[in-house]
Specification:
Oligomer: single chain
Largest sheet: 9 strands, mixed
Number of domains: 1
Distance between the termini: 47 Å
Bound molecules: fe (ii) ion
Structural class: alpha+beta
Helix content: 25-40%
CATH superfamily: Clavaminate synthase-like
CATH class: Alpha Beta
Number of helices: 9
Order of helices and strands: HEHHHEHHEEEEEHHEEEEEHEEEEEE
Strand content: 15-25%
């Protein structure tokens, strides 16, 4: 390594340390979280009316058990200053091994252990002042999304492998670096669209081959491309294609959006998807150069990997980090995902309990 590139590497390492943080539960704390998650699952999990207030109460009670350092860490994520918070020291809900082939989605969704993991995710989101929610036009309007190869495209074929693979978390395809859709705005509602999710939280029901989830913190990426390119990315010169997870007939592609925006409360907020975004043809050469620099910098970034199991969860700041994954190798892998809305976001609310937003 030459001296000329060394400072960049050191800067990137410094940023990454600050941006990826771990919150460790002790035995007493994780036992209480486990109990609260089971109680929430017993009423039907995050989708059930009343789950929202139950999760809030659970979070308040858990915080009595946390140290000052633990509370500060939750506060830092809640204030938008951390890219990823990994929760460790959690308890398993089941020892049952995955079947050779996954059951259909609806039967998986109704399993008690899945409801427990989803409920635990909802409580963990509340610890960082995020509310679990769903969009009306995504994931069939449901709060809980199971991330698994239901639709083919993984390394190994599923029983009814379709010819055309869906590019979404319901397939086995590799997914390039992205933030979660919708992409109209990141913090405040705009022209009838709610902002992107503030956070997504993931845990695993089964991950038998220990396949990791990867995250790319954006601060070092943006630092690398420089201030002029970042400013060019705040212009409305970008377009995106429709997500495959949207409800049939709802949601669409979009144009004239920015990738970065400045917000008084969170600082910068990003929306980007390496396989759905592009720069407008009539954009200036400065903007096109900035877009190419962003794509290159994202491509060169080394993702931080975490292997999810039932004993951990990761909450990703969806306006400050990209996430991605490789091709699914083991079709028994099932992750449980929920979106979170931060205290800074102003969405368009359709129903309050469960929280459903206009996408
Ligand atoms: Fe994703």
């Amino acid at each position: 390594m030459t001296d000329a590139i060394k400072p960049d590497v050191e800067t990137a390492e410094f940023f990454t340390e600050q941006e990826i943080r771990t919150f460790s539960f002790d035995i007493r704390q994780s036992a209480l979280l486990h109990k609260f998650a089971e109680e929430l699952a017993a009423i039907g999990g995050p989708q059930a009316p009343g789950a929202k207030s139950k999760a809030s109460l659970a979070a308040i009670q858990l915080k009595f058990l946390f140290s000052k350092d633990q509370c500060e860490l939750l506060g830092a994520y809640s204030d938008g200053l951390v890219c990823v918070l990994i929760f460790e020291g959690l308890q398993k809900f089941t020892d049952v091994s995955p079947p050779h082939e996954l059951p259909v989605l609806t039967s998986l969704e109704n399993r008690y252990d899945v409801l427990c993991l989803a409920a635990r995710n909802q409580i963990l989101l509340k610890l960082v002042d995020n509310s679990a929610f769903a969009y009306d036009m995504d994931n069939e309007g449901k709060l809980v999304r199971l991330v698994a190869n239901f639709k083919g495209g993984g390394l190994n074929k599923i029983p009814a492998e379709p010819d055309i693979k869906e590019l979404s978390s319901h397939s086995g395809l590799a997914l390039g670096p992205h933030t979660e859709a919708p992409y109209w705005c990141a913090v405040n509602a705009k022209e009838g669209h709610s902002p992107s999710p503030s956070s997504l939280i993931l845990s695993a029901l089964w991950n038998p081959s220990l396949e990791p989830t990867s995250v790319i913190p954006l601060p070092p990426v943006l630092e690398k491309i420089g201030v002029t390119n970042c400013l060019a990315l705040t212009t409305g010169n970008f377009q995106f294609t429709r997500s495959d997870s949207f409800v049939s007939g709802k949601g669409g592609d979009g144009r004239n959006v920015s990738i970065l925006e400045f917000d008084d409360k969170v600082g910068f907020a990003a929306r980007f998807n390496s396989y759905r975004f592009s720069v407008s043809e009539n954009a200036s050469s400065l903007v096109k150069t900035a877009y190419a620099a962003l794509c290159q910098s994202v491509g060169e970034a080394t993702p931080v990997e975490h292997t999810l199991t039932q004993e951990s969860a990761m909450v990703i700041n969806n306006v400050r980090a990209l996430h991605c994954r490789d091709l699914i190798k083991d079709n028994r892998r099932v992750l449980v995902r929920i979106f979170g809305l931060s205290k800074f976001s102003s969405p368009i609310v359709i129903t309050d309990d469960p929280l459903r937003l206009q996408g």
